Amino acid sequence: MRVNFTVNGREQQADDVWEGESLLYVLRERMGLPGSKNACEQGECGSCTVRLDGVPVCSCLVAAGQAEGREVVTVEGLADFAEERARRGGCATGTCGTAAGTSMDAAQAWQAWQAKPAGAGSRTGGDQVRLAPVQQAFIDAGAVQCGFCTPGLLVAADELLERNAQPSDADIREALSGNLCRCTGYEKILDAVRLAAARGDAQTTGTGA
């Protein structure tokens, strides 16, 4: 079957999709967007989290056909999504998407940068890769180790900060409760979300980052 849907603000089409294929498989294998990770395949770990019409979902549990006519945002599109959200002054529904969107080439270039070893290129400089505020906060707070769970955590954290700009620790823990991490012990992840929230508040009040 053919699936027509919007991925990171751009209309996309996937052909010859088997009825049993998951959205995760289509994104990784057909769209060339491997940011969403294939781990448990049971919706338990959160590594495959994407936003479907604004709502965080485990893409391993979503049949590809269920995405027909809907909007998907993956970790590769977070920077453009956040930029458009800021331009519009926030998005209460979580489905604002992007006007121009993230091209597949740009999304795949982001993934290629992510795979570089440490020191192979500047995260914010020479390679010109743009990051969403929550992505930069994860880097600055040291919340990334092996990185396997990070895309799902980023998507979930970004959605939290969109609907709750100043979350409590309890809010953060609840929003990320479906995302497992075996490396960090979670404290750095919590620090990263707190940092992203603080920076967002500082920009809103004009007190600086």
Q: What is the overall silhouette?
A: globular
* Quaternary class: single chain
Q: What percentage of the residues does DSSP assign to strands (E)?
A: 5-15%
Distance between the termini: 48 Å
Indicate the structural class.
Answer: alpha+beta
Q: Spans with pLDDT under 50 lasting ≥5 residues?
A: 92-99, 112-126
Helicity range? 25-40%
Number of helices: 7
**Secondary structure: number of strands:** 5
Largest sheet: 5 strands, mixed
Gyration radius, to the nearest Å? 16 Å
Characterization of the model:
It is built from 7 helices and 5 strands. It has 209 residues and is of the alpha+beta class. The chain has a 5-stranded mixed β-sheet with strand order 2-1-5-3-4, sandwiched between helices. α4 (133-140) crosses α7.
Brief summary:
This protein is of the alpha+beta class and 209 residues long. It contains 7 helices and 5 strands.
Kindly list the characteristics that best describe this protein.
about 210 residues, alpha+beta, single chain
Topology (SSEs and partners):
Layout: E1 3-7, E2 10-14, H1 23-30, E3 49-52, E4 55-58, E5 71-73, H2 78-87, H3 104-114, H4 133-140, H5 150-163, H6 169-175, H7 187-205
Parallel strand pairs: 1-5
Antiparallel strand pairs: 1-2, 3-4, 3-5
Helix pairs in contact: 4-7
